[in-house]
Here is the input.
Amino acid sequence: MAYIDDPHTQKANLRYIRASMREPMLERDDEFELARRWRGDEDEAALHKLVRSYTRLVVSTAARFRNYGLPMGDLVQEGNVGLLQAAAKFDPDREVRFSTYATWWIRSAIQDYILRNWSIVRTGTTAAQKTLFFNLRRLRARIADTSTGRLNDEGRGKIAKELRVKFHEVESMENRLNANDQSLNAMIADSSDDSWQDFLADTRPTPESVVRTRCDTEIRSRWLDMALSELSPREQIIIKRRRLREDGATLEELGRELGVSKERVRQLEHRAMTKMRDVISENVEAPADLLIEA
Here is the structure.
């Protein structure tokens, strides 16, 4: 996906970049003093001076990501957001230069923007995917077959090892980067009346299948109710608690509840299942449709 700025925007961006590069860099003591004034006294003038002095850092970081097809002006704006976040969280008492601290925030903001806008399909949703997205091109240029520009399995293995990701993740991201976004409404060929969406399989059950399943379920429920009605109250409790729940009760639990041993519960369960099987066999033409194991 590529974006092209209009001439007016390009000129405005160029003026901003030139102005940013002319801003003088701060000495260590100066930036710490500005940061303390902002943190302690909420001195906005100190904040503005601190941020302006490092907009050149935003520009240089954004320039490293200009090959992802997004407007340079947008990358700079996102980098400025990261710069402001860094200024808001910077603690001068940690004795770390602001430029070092801000670099991470600026790069993170720009990368997040690229991942959100590079494609309409969400990319880089995991740490491994994000690492691959921003490093695969560089490593592929160094490792790939120069005649085809594609990686072989050996090359993919080297990248997976270097980036500490799985082999299939390298292969998946390579395919993703080589593919362009395409509308499902687009025709598969100029001479065809079929669109890509015409070939998407509908995995939902058919209406006939839905109706058949509903009817079968209702019939099996009637068979089950009929068989349960032939059981004693204690046998019904055991079957319902042991066989008709996902988290069935144990023999020990039912034994405590009914005041009998585990072995007695097992015997009652076996007898109840035999009764149900016999009732269904006598009253249903195809008892195998309702599988009941004693």
